[in-house]
Amino acid sequence: MSQHTLRQVATTPDPYAPFNISQAIAAAGLVFVSGQAAMDLQGRLVGGDDFEAQAEQAFRMLGTVLEAAGSSLARVVKVTIYVTDMTQFPVVVRLREKYFTRPWPADTIVQVESLALPGLKIEIDAIALSGRG
Question: How many other β-carbons are positioned within 10 Å of the β-carbon of residue 32?
């Protein structure tokens, strides 16, 4: 792939297609992943009102999209995590340790009033290196 080529990354099915959003874009040796939330591949909410269950699903979906891009959670260099309740920060830290490895990705965590769909409590976007190396 040329450094100037953009490649859309999508799973099958792609729950983001109805919103005209790419799940990720691969370009210049990097993978830019759109915010992943507690949704399954059919676009259904996973975890109900349970923050930790939602967070687990968001991390799993991040991994799924990275795999579809030919990358992995081990290649993540930067994440931004949006939560609707900052008191859940310890849960996020615990899950970061479960899903990421050293060196830990750079991270920004932000509390927001709401996310794109009703009921969502967490969303994670990421930048990762291409490839599985």
Answer: 18
Q: Which amino acid is at 126?
A: A
- Residue that has been written with the tokens 């999209």 in this structure: 65
Instruction: Give residue-wise pLDDT tens across range 12-48.
Output: 999 999 999 999 999 999 999 999 999 999 999 999 9
Domain ranges of the chain: 7-129
Residue among 55, 63, 125, 132 nearest 100 (CA): 63
Backbone dihedral region for residue 36 (phi beyond 0: left; psi -120 to 50: alpha; all else: beta) = beta
In sequence order, which residues have a C-beta less than 8 Å from that of residue 104 and are 6 or more positions away? 96
Rounded distance, CA 28 to CA 14, Å? Answer: 23
Could you confirm whether domain 7-129 is CATH 3.30.470.20?
A: no
Contact 23, 34 (CB under 8 A): yes
How far is residue 67's CA from residue 96's CA, in Å, rounded to a whole number? Answer: 18
Phi, psi for 8 (deg, rounded to 5): -75, 135
Q: Are 115 and 82 in contact (CB under 8 A)?
A: yes
Here the tokens at position 13 are: 């099915």
